[in-house]
Specification:
Blueprint (H helix, E strand, L loop, with lengths): L1 E2 L8 E6 L2 H13 L3 E6 L7 H18 L2 E4 L4 H7 L11 H20 L4 E4 L9 H14 L3 E3 L8 H11 L11 H4 L2
Parallel strand pairs: 1-6, 2-3, 2-5, 3-4, 5-6
Helix pairs in contact: 1-2, 1-6, 4-5
Length: 187
């Protein structure tokens, strides 16, 4: 189920966070919408591990700033590589990326369910490098299968990408220069 809400009277939502920069404005906006935000950082695709650690620390800094609950997923690159096996040579924004989105959003939905949070979304949709409609379709399908609600909020609207960059600059968050996986590094 896809839903766009404006007043949630402090209902919990799980936000899958891909990085501090991308999740800065989504956290702020979801709080403004009345949500109590729980951030879940699960990104087994990030390579190398020191890059993962930099992004993790930026996310923790951001969560402290916004005073939101933070859940750290396990760093499981072997699961990512198995999940995208055979798609290593796919172009950026192709089938490999779709599988990566599916892996991370499925795990986010599982964690959401585990903690009794009925709604989830992802910060990945704020990036102009990501396909909002594709991510929404994947999130909606997973939500339907798990009896959850995927909140389809286009965080890019109303200068969201500009706002997320401003917040991250103010907090001096680590800024990456590629999506995260080793395959994106070659593009």
């Amino acid at each position: 189920m896809v839903q766009n809400q404006t007043n949630c009277s402090n209902k919990k939502i799980l936000l899958h966070a891909c990085c501090g920069i991308c999740s800065a404005y989504p956290i702020s906006l979801l709080q403004d919408m009345g949500y109590s935000v729980v951030v879940y950082f699960y990104n087994p695709n990030i390579f190398p591990e020191d890059e993962y650690q930099k992004r993790l620390e930026a996310e923790k800094t951001l969560c402290r700033h916004f005073n939101v609950e933070f859940i750290e997923g396990e760093y499981e690159p072997e699961i990512y590589y198995n999940y995208v096996s055979g798609l290593e040579n796919e172009p950026e924004k192709g089938a490999r990326c779709d599988k990566c989105f599916e892996l991370r959003l499925t795990k986010a939905a599982q964690i959401s369910k585990k903690f009794g949070i009925d709604e989830f979304t992802t910060s990945m949709v704020i990036s102009p490098h990501k396909n909002y409609n594709k991510l929404t379709q994947i999130g909606e399908k997973i939500a339907s299968e798990m009896n959850l609600t995927y909140i389809s909020t286009n965080f890019r609207k109303n200068d969201g990408f500009l706002k997320t960059n401003q917040i991250s600059k103010e907090l001096n968050l680590y800024r990456q220069n590629y999506c995260g996986c080793k395959f994106a590094m070659r593009n």
